[in-house]
Amino acid sequence: MAYYVLEYALADDYAERRTPLREEHLGLVREAHEQGALLLAGPLEEPGDRALPVWRVDGPSAVEEFAKRDPYVRHGLVTRWSVRPWNVVVG
What we know:
30% strand; 5 strands; single chain; alpha+beta
C-alpha cells in the first residue's frame, strides 16, 4: 500500500455551486473512507482554491476512478485534478 494525494483545483464559484452536488459527492467520499482507502479529505482555506484528499491504496488507479466519478469533477466545480504519490516519512 502507498499514499497518494488527489489534488483538486477548485472553480472560483465552487462554494456557490456545490450545494446540489454535495450529497452525491459526500456519498462517494464516505464510501471510500469506509473501505479504508480514503484517509482524509477536505478543501484548503485562505484561499479556498484547492482540495487535497489523502489516500492509502495499492496504486493510483483507485484514486483516478474516484475523481472520474466525482460529481464535482463531472460538473466543472473541479477545473483540473492530478494524482501524486506521497512519500510519507513520519506518521
